[in-house]
Structure formats: structure tokens, C-alpha cells
Structure prediction request, 182 residues.
Amino acid sequence: MSAARVSMAVTGVLLAGVALAGPPRYERSGSSEYDYAPVTRVEPIVREVRVETPNRECYDDVRYVEERPHISDPAVGVRTLVGGLIGGVIGHQFGSGRGRDAATVAGATVGAAVGYDAAARRSASVREEIVQRCEVRYEKRYEERIDGYRVTYEYNGREYTTRLPYDPGNRIRVRVAVAVAE
Prediction:
């Protein structure tokens, strides 16, 4: 094979490859750079929320306490003893044998209780006692809270609006992306 033929064959293969490939394509999806844009308007986004604050309120309450005397008080002790004796005598009148013993014990017990109660009521005293009572009540009120900022800025003669969690000030950083338009 001659050198000319080899050269033509190689050139033909290369041209066929270029023809099939089409125009060159770049695999980059776009490049990004950052720039700054002037902010033209910042509006706070306000939301109303309900706030409940607990308040403890206390007041004095009067309570009446009945103080009953103790059995060791002579007046109460004597009346309890006399009531028990009388109840025992009355209970002894009923039944026979072991039933009579049970009736005597029951009568003495009931008589002692009646005697103590009568003596305690007679010598009982009532005193006032001041007790502090407290309640928790919730005060409800509404507050305005800033939920973010609606920011308007201008870049290359066009106006854009976005929402940010903070106030950016006089300028905002923006991403500028360049991509092929097909």
C-alpha cells in the first residue's frame, strides 16, 4: 500500500468521526459565581401568637376548727366513766348466760361513747384558723413576633423577591449562574 493511500484512509476515518460527533459539547452544567445586589425593600413578616403566663394568686381563708377535749380532762373522764357504768347496768338486764355478758360489754361500750360525746360537746371550743389558699390562673395575651423578612433586591435591571430569616441590610449576596441556552 502506498503512503498516499494510507494517508487518505486515516483522513477519511478522522473526518467520519468528526461528522458523527457533531458540534463540540461542554459537559459543565454551568458555572456559578457570587455577586452583590442592592436591597431595595425589606418587610418584616409578622405573625401574631398567643402567650399564656401563669399567675399564682393566694388569699387567706378562715377555717373553724372544733377542739374537743381529751379523755384525760377530768370532766370528760368522769362523764365517760358514768356513761359506761350506766350502759353496763342497762346491758346486764338483757339476755342470760354468755349472752348477758356480751350485752353488758356492749351496753358499757355504748354508754361510754354517749358519755364522752356529751361531755366533749359541752366543753368543746371552736377556734378560727387562717389558712392560705392559692390558685394558678393563666393570663392570655397576644404578641407580634417577626417570622422572617420579605426582601426585594435588584440585579441587572430586574427586581427579585425572596424570603430570609434575617434582615440582610443594604445589600444581599446572590449567585450568578451561567448556562448554555439551546
In short: Confidence is low (pLDDT under 50) at residues 22-29. Helices lie at 3-21, 74-92, 98-123. Strands lie at 31-67, 125-155, 158-164, 171-178. Residues 163 and 180 are 28 Å apart (CA to CA).
